[in-house]
């Protein structure tokens, strides 16, 4: 025989539980909650009507109410952000004939977990040294653009003289040059543009529109930050670049190769002129 706990013990357990517990009726009104649910979800104790819709954007209100009323025994979950915290809600349908119809929400603070997930996700798509997106993420975005036949522009960039800096001033100086190059590029693009480091001294800017004037303007801003190298001291950031838009090439996948070739033309020009003291026999 199962021993029955007094009602006051059940009340204490529900209040001291390490999860928030909320009961919501079929109209979305909160009918009961424990203290942790109040803290996590912001339920009001001032007599104000609490509603589960408070936790969701207006765009999904109808869907939430519909789910409460038509769910059978299947649970569902959602992670929301409230007051800078990540909150996970697990919804369990409750059907007690003639007494209650609605859902019980089990609430947990999963902020640390979600932050760790964000760190892992970011690490998978970014370059460790510069914080820019990496080659793997470029391949994903580029595949989506070409598959969906969306217009785009590409700017290929390469640091001039990185090997010279590494050989003469050490790899720490080379890393600083790479980081500064990344900063110069990032400061020269728009917020809607993607900047990638391909590794070594190579960078790519991916522009989500086919506009030669836009690509030319970005190139001009980047080039305006270039420092002309001098043989009598450490060289600053100097980037060769080449740009191409999807309208210039019939095959979208060749746009990358087009920009790459233009960049190498610019690089050959650099080593034949102001950078000839760095490497006299051609590009690095």
UniProtKB/TrEMBL annotation:
Residues in GGDEF domain copies: 150-280
Task: Tell me a GO biological process for this protein.
Answer: cell adhesion involved in single-species biofilm formation
**Classification via SUPFAM superfamilies:** Nucleotide cyclase (SSF55073), PYP-like sensor domain (PAS domain) (SSF55785)
GO CC terms in record: plasma membrane
Q: Fetch the InterPro entries from UniProt.
A: Diguanylate_Cyclase (IPR050469), GGDEF_dom (IPR000160), Nucleotide_cyclase (IPR029787), PAS (IPR000014), PAS-like_dom_sf (IPR035965), Rev_trsase/Diguanyl_cyclase (IPR043128)
Q: Which residues form the PAS domain?
A: 6-46
Q: Which SMART domains match?
A: GGDEF
User: Which Pfam family is an annotated match for this chain, by its short name?
Assistant: GGDEF
- Select a single GO molecular function from the record's annotations and give it: diguanylate cyclase activity
Please report the name of this protein according to its UniProt entry: PAS domain S-box-containing protein/diguanylate cyclase (GGDEF) domain-containing protein
> Where does this protein come from, organism-wise?
Desulforamulus aeronauticus DSM 10349
